[in-house]
């Protein structure tokens, strides 16, 4: 059989099990994270997704002649926090470099990045796998850089540059702070390589979310993953030629892209062909990859130290302060919460799957008992989210507000039924729970004299029933309680009303 | 007072008269606009210092200054004094071209920090001055809009890159100007036009709004006809700027005080080092003679003059011609026809990279292309260590030579440039000969220390101005001002040449 390497014809992918009979996969994952700082990396423009094109721009992020970069201190702080959370060393003196290449969405035609001396380096992340074990992924480095603008290719079928007849440029994203986190080669994962890749990106996302430094939305591009895959023959220690797959826009896609590339590589290699080093494009629909723009023979970015920015020398004290303030790792937190709240594995999984764990935990932190907090989020609020077609975290109520509602019930100001109305009011934008209580007049009527009057009026209105009660038929009290509840528009504590009815008939 | 009197006065004296309301800023501004009208054009034969003149804007600024003075609230000691701006500084009310076709017609949406400070101080911008394209050159012959001419001899170059600013000041078209000095572009033009040019310590004047040539070397500074005028302007433009992270937080050295102290003529206790490397072959005899005279005069003022050796300065020129083009190749990458300036070949069919290539081919001049290519090569993976890397090592050695020399000397001196103004056309085909004009000035750009050029009489062999360079340690600009001011006063007592050359032939030819 002759070797087939025609790039247009894909060899049939092998399963990972088949691949691993012959090869050991080697992974390398590069994750770009957009920081959620208020302003961009080197200017004062708002760092915001979704604004009208070219509205968050200024001479600096448009790279106008004469403009100079001004480093955003919060971006540096975020980079250090990320490094610390990934068990990295923080470099005492690092700096920026210029990466020179021409592309229309990059207004200076160079990108300010870090090259030889990234701010943090040499770390690891212990990644929880599905079976409860952990996999240590070693981190090579994490460095800061500025994002480019966005090109919108008009005309042509694919929205990609090939076939387009013109392009529009939006520089809102130009200069948005990015952190690129690069793993060391991930070896020895074998058939679990696709799972390890997904689990790593998931764990990284959870860590970054826990740090609060990024929105980490893969669907919006605030977290982007490039997956490098290569195969080496079993028993060999020489890495094979790698491909870099881009456009991997979900956690599931990370796993699928790695699996597909492993199979594709094996297909090419086992038929005697060779892998071409190239960038590939993942297609969500088909779950396959296709060649991107062929990489020019060798991209020489002509890196050199950025002369417009002084070296970066974070003080030890600052770094230690940031280290001390690091939050718990998300999965450690989960384990702690499970024990503290006495949750079954299933209950915990439900909370996590509903994206409710953080919300419940924050509600507990705001003073609510775990059971009440959990109950609100997984039942009533989950229904409301479902009806509104949003995720729980997107619901317009905060854990602190839920905790306040719980407290109002506990102190007797609200019944459970009233509490749901208060929550509805908060969701409808009527303000804080107390505002809704006041605004809608929802507080339980706990004024004893008012209640007593209402009870007396109800007894007087139904003398026959009053007589029955006095004769010892306490069950008849229900009708009077119902009348009182009606008269108070449900805002009385029914149990107390019952007591009062019996008292007044004694 | 006549216009010709007004244009011959120093900025300090003009300011005094304007503030005393002996003359208005409008009158002073009008006198300079008339002088520009009389001698600057035509581009083919006049001084051609200006690429753009904003008469209406200048008169409006002058009126505002007069009003503030009438109300007793002048914005600064220089309020009401006209000034010319090198055309690589961004200005919202005038184009910024860098003397390049590629930026022709570009109107920046923001003022450079120095321009904003000038406006806030009530100075009156007259227009934008000519330069070698993107400040790359020593003669203004690389300007896409034709060279400026030396007012002392219109067949000769006014220096470069800031020859527009130097010739405007020398010809009485402006009492003050701003320049930018990457390898000598303020000092060498000052020397060959008989004016004062100062390169402040790197980082003490904001570069925000200066179209970058070589970011680690570029420094904005004053051009004037007296040391005191330069110091007064220095105080207006200097000081930290949050928009330039290479600007230093240290307080500005007391340059005006130093210039005033120096003018009292006493240099007792000052140790001056003569850099031995800056003489010999390639130095015009008349320049060396004028320099020797200056050394004698400084000794008579009480200074102790010694010789110092800075052997690494021999590497300065080659190091500079690797570092500056390297940074330039990156800085000038943004001129790609996408967002502003020239666009060539956009016929709706060609791809953006083709349009970019055609635009850069048509928009950049030969010297700019040469430096972009040198710099691109020097930064390439295969040559980075041998070229850019080695140049940075040489830079470190030069810094060490300065450090050692300043351990024994308060300031160092040399001729500013090896020759007087050469003839237009003489060196255009010989880039290496052209590069030699910056031999003495480049070390201070590489090291970042302060240096200035002060008029040093005229060369006996051709009667043209010579410059004396005074170099001081970083953040000790005041020392250079003190020595230069003392020398200026002493020389004036023996040199009766007018400070503004006769340009009557030009005036009457119109
Ligand atoms: Zn901006």
Automatic annotation (TrEMBL), chain A:
InterPro entries documented for this protein: Asn/Gln-tRNA_amidoTrfase_suB/E (IPR017959), Asn/Gln-tRNA_Trfase_suB/E_cat (IPR006075), Asn/Gln_amidotransferase (IPR018027), Asn/Gln_tRNA_amidoTrase-B-like (IPR003789), GatB (IPR004413), GatB_Yqey_C_2 (IPR023168), Gln-tRNA_amidoTrfase_suB_CS (IPR017958), Gln_synth/guanido_kin_cat_dom (IPR014746)
PROSITE patterns the UniProt entry points to: GATB
Key words of the record: ATP-binding, Ligase, Nucleotide-binding, Protein biosynthesis
E.C. numbers: 6.3.5.-
Region of interest: Disordered: 279-299
Catalyses which reaction(s): L-aspartyl-tRNA(Asn) + L-glutamine + ATP + H2O = L-asparaginyl-tRNA(Asn) + L-glutamate + ADP + phosphate + 2 H(+); L-glutamyl-tRNA(Gln) + L-glutamine + ATP + H2O = L-glutaminyl-tRNA(Gln) + L-glutamate + ADP + phosphate + H(+)
SMART domains per the UniProt record, alphabetical: GatB_Yqey (SM00845)
Asn/Gln amidotransferase domain span: 358-505
Highest taxon of source: Bacteria
Function text: Allows the formation of correctly charged Asn-tRNA(Asn) or Gln-tRNA(Gln) through the transamidation of misacylated Asp-tRNA(Asn) or Glu-tRNA(Gln) in organisms which lack either or both of asparaginyl-tRNA or glutaminyl-tRNA synthetases. The reaction takes place in the presence of glutamine and ATP through an activated phospho-Asp-tRNA(Asn) or phospho-Glu-tRNA(Gln).
Subunit-structure text: Heterotrimer of A, B and C subunits.
Family: Belongs to the GatB/GatE family. GatB subfamily.
NCBIfam families: gatB, PRK05477.1-2, PRK05477.1-3, PRK05477.1-4
PANTHER family: GLUTAMYL-TRNA GLN AMIDOTRANSFERASE SUBUNIT B MITOCHONDRIAL AND PROKARYOTIC PET112-RELATED (PTHR11659), GLUTAMYL-TRNA(GLN) AMIDOTRANSFERASE SUBUNIT B, MITOCHONDRIAL (PTHR11659:SF0)
Protein name: Aspartyl/glutamyl-tRNA(Asn/Gln) amidotransferase subunit B
Species: Actinomycetospora lemnae
TrEMBL record, chain B:
The keyword Nucleotide-binding appears for this protein: yes
Keywords: ATP-binding, Ligase, Nucleotide-binding, Protein biosynthesis
Pfam families given in the database record: Amidase
Organism for this UniProt entry: Actinomycetospora lemnae
Residue runs in coiled coils: none
Assembly and interaction partners: Heterotrimer of A, B and C subunits.
Similarity annotation: Belongs to the amidase family. GatA subfamily.
Signal sequence, renumbered to the chain: none
Keyword match Secreted: no
Catalytic activity: L-glutamyl-tRNA(Gln) + L-glutamine + ATP + H2O = L-glutaminyl-tRNA(Gln) + L-glutamate + ADP + phosphate + H(+)
Active-site residues annotated for this sequence: 86, 161, 185
Designated name of the protein: Glutamyl-tRNA(Gln) amidotransferase subunit A
Protein function: Allows the formation of correctly charged Gln-tRNA(Gln) through the transamidation of misacylated Glu-tRNA(Gln) in organisms which lack glutaminyl-tRNA synthetase. The reaction takes place in the presence of glutamine and ATP through an activated gamma-phospho-Glu-tRNA(Gln).
EC number(s) from the headed UniProt entry: 6.3.5.7
PROSITE patterns: AMIDASES
Domain Amidase, first and last residues per copy: 27-478
């Amino acid at each position: 059989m002759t070797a087939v390497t025609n790039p247009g014809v894909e060899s049939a992918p092998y399963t990972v099990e088949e691949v691993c009979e012959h090869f050991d996969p080697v992974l390398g994952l590069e994750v770009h994270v957009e920081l959620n700082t208020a302003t961009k990396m080197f200017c004062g423009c708002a760092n915001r997704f979704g604004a009208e094109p070219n509205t968050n721009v200024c001479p600096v992020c448009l790279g106008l002649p004469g403009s100079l970069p001004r480093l955003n201190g919060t971006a540096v702080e975020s980079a250090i926090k990320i490094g610390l959370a990934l068990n990295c060393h923080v470099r005492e003196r690092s700096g920026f470099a210029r990466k020179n290449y021409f592309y229309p969405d990059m207004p200076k035609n160079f990108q300010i990045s870090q090259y030889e001396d990234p701010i943090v380096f040499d770390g690891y992340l212990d990644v929880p796998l599905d079976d409860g074990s952990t996999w240590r992924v070693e981190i090579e480095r994490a460095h800061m850089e500025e994002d480019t603008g966005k090109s919108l290719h008009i005309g042509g079928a694919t929205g990609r540059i090939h076939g387009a007849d013109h392009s529009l440029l939006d520089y809102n994203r130009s200069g948005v702070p990015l952190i690129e986190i690069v793993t060391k080669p991930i070896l020895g994962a074998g058939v679990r390589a696709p799972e390890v890749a997904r689990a790593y990106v998931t764990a990284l996302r959870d860590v970054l979310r826990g740090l609060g430094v990024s929105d980490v939305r893969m669907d919006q591009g605030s977290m982007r993953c490039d997956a490098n895959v290569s195969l080496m023959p079993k028993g060999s220690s020489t890495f094979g030629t790698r491909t870099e797959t881009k456009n991997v826009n979900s956690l599931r896609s990370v796993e699928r892209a790695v699996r597909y590339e492993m199979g594709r590589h094996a297909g090419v290699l086992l038929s005697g062909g060779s892998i071409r080093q190239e960038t590939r494009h993942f297609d969500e629909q088909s779950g396959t990859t296709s060649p991107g723009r062929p990489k020019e023979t060798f991209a020489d970015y002509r890196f050199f130290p950025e002369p417009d920015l002084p070296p970066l020398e974070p003080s030890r004290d600052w770094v230690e302060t940031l280290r001390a303030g690091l939050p718990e790792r998300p999965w450690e937190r989960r384990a702690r919460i499970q024990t503290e709240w006495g949750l079954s594995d299933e209950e915990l999984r439900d909370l996590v799957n509903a994206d409710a764990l953080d919300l419940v935990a924050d509600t507990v932190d705001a003073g609510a008992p775990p059971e009440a907090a959990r109950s609100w989020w997984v039942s009533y609020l989950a229904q409301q989210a479902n009806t509104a077609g949003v995720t729980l975290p997107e619901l317009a109520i905060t854990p602190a507000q839920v905790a306040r509602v719980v407290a109002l019930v506990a102190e007797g100001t609200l019944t459970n039924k009233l509490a749901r109305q208060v929550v509805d009011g908060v969701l409808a934008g009527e303000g804080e729970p107390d505002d809704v209580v006041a605004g809608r007049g929802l507080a339980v009527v706990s004024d004893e004299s008012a209640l007593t009057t209402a009870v007396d009026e109800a007894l007087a209105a139904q003398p026959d029933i009053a007589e029955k009660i006095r004769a010892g038929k306490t069950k008849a009290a229900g009708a009077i309680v119902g009348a009182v509840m009606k008269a108070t528009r449900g805002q009385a504590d029914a149990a107390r009303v019952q007591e009062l009815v019996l008292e007044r008939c004694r | 007072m006549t216009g010709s009197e007004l244009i011959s006065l120093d900025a300090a004296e003009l300011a005094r008269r304007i503030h005393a309301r002996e003359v208005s800023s409008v009158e002073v501004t009008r006198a300079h606009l008339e002088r520009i009208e009389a001698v600057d054009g035509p581009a083919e034969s006049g001084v051609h210092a200006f690429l753009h003149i904003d008469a209406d804007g200048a008169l409006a600024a002058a009126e505002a200054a007069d009003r503030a003075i009438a109300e007793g609230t002048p914005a600064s000691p220089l309020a009401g004094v006209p000034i010319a701006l090198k055309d690589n500084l961004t200005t919202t009310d005038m184009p910024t071209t860098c003397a390049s076709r590629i930026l022709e017609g570009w109107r920046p949406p923001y003022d450079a920090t120095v321009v904003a400070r000038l406006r806030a101080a009530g100075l009156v911008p007259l227009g934008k001055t000519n330069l070698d394209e993107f400040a790359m050159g020593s003669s203004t012959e690389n300007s896409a809009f034709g060279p400026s001419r030396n007012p002392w001899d219109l067949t000769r170059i006014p220096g470069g890159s800031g020859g527009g600013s130097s010739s405007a000041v020398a010809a009485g078209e402006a009492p003050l100007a701003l320049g930018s000095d990457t390898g000598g572009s303020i000092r060498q033009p000052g020397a060959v036009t008989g004016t004062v040019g100062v390169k402040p310590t790197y980082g003490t004047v904001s570069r925000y709004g200066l179209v970058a040539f070589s970011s680690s070397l570029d420094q904005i500074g004053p051009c004037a006809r007296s040391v005191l005028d330069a110091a007064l302007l220095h105080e207006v433009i200097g000081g930290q700027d949050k928009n330039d992270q290479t600007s230093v937080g240290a307080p500005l050295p007391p340059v005006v005080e130093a210039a005033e102290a120096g003018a009292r003529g006493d240099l007792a206790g000052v140790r001056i080092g003569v850099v031995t490397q800056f003489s010999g072959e390639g130095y015009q005899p008349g320049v060396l003679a004028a320099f020797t005279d200056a050394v004698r005069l400084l000794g008579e003022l009480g200074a102790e003059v010694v010789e110092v050796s800075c052997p690494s300065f021999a590497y300065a020129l080659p190091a500079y011609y690797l570092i500056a083009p390297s940074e330039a190749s990156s800085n000038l990458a943004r001129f790609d026809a996408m967002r502003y300036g020239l666009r060539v070949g956009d016929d709706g069919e060609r791809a953006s990279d083709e349009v970019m290539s055609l635009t850069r081919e048509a928009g950049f001049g030969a010297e700019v292309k040469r430096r972009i290519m040198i710099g691109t090569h020097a930064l390439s993976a295969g040559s980075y260590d041998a070229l850019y890397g080695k140049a940075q090592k040489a830079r470190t050695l030069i810094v060490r030579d300065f450090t050692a020399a300043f351990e024994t000397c308060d300031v160092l001196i040399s001729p500013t440039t090896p020759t007087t103004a050469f003839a237009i056309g003489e060196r255009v085909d010989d880039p290496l000969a052209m590069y030699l004009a910056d031999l003495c000035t480049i070390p201070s750009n590489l090291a970042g220390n302060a240096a200035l050029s002060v008029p040093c009489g005229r060369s006996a062999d051709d009667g043209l101005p010579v410059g004396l360079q005074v170099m001081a340690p970083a953040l000790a600009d005041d020392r250079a001002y003190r020595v230069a001011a003392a020398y200026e006063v002493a020389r004036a007592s023996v040199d009766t040449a007018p400070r503004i050359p006769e340009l009557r032939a030009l005036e009457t030819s119109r």
